[in-house]
Amino acid sequence: MFAKHGSAPVNGRLRRVNAEPRWLRALLLVVGLGFLFFFLVLPLLAVFVEAFAAGWTAYAGALNDLETRSAIGLTLLVAFFVLPFNVVFGVAAAWAIAKFDFRGKSLLITLIDLPFAVSPVVVGLVFLLIFGAQGLFGPWLAAHDIKVVFALPGIIVVTLFITSPFIARELIPLMQSQGTEEEEAALSLGASAWQMFRRVTLPNIKWGLLYGVILSNARAMGEFGAVSVVSGHIRGETNTLPLHVEILYNEYNAVGAFASASVLALLALVTLLAKTVVEWRMRRENSMLLADLPTEET
Predict the structure, then answer these.
(1) Separation of alpha carbons 101 and 292, rounded Å
(2) Do 127 and 230 contact (CB within 8 A), yes or no?
């Protein structure tokens, strides 16, 4: 049977794990839950406690501040511009790597992982050297009255660089595991390339794509280092929400800082909830596919 070949070693490991002493399992559970509470739950609770420390009126007043609203709007605007580019790049890169063999494929995979290896601050400095006033394209941009750094385009560019691997990295193993048989069958039946993508490829990768979008969106809204370098920290213009929180905290405006931080925390919780729902749907769909597989005759 197909299931028996794959599940026997797993069941063996599970039996060995279940055979461990009860006190050891309890200790591991306490350590895991304790870590989650002290390093994840407690800091989140502290943010909301400090945000409401002066009361609801002070909290609402801090969020209604003009600069805070501008920071929230800019953060959402950057994510709005970055995500479509990441979707197009991620799907195209994953498709090329998973479906085709070509020279330079390993180099492309390495380049996709590059943003994970480079410090965001270094990324900001690099783009400052390229588009800054004394940078490579600085004089040309100034001559044509085009402003990239210390403006919205610079923030979008560095955020795009930082978040570019998330969708591609999620789709590459998924598309490699699916192979090319279904796309080849669709083409042999007369489907166009767009019809093949829309009716075969996209349904197969939809949950992985949505998962990558969620992760990319979370990083885009929370990016600090690279944005800090190229934004110029102009109040009400180029301060995203993470930068605004830092400024308020340095000015001893605790209520404003934690109120703004609570918005980021809420966005993170919504992202976590969406991520959990997508993971559940992916596991459910995979289980249904495995259940539909024909069993091997013994």
Answers:
(1) 31
(2) yes
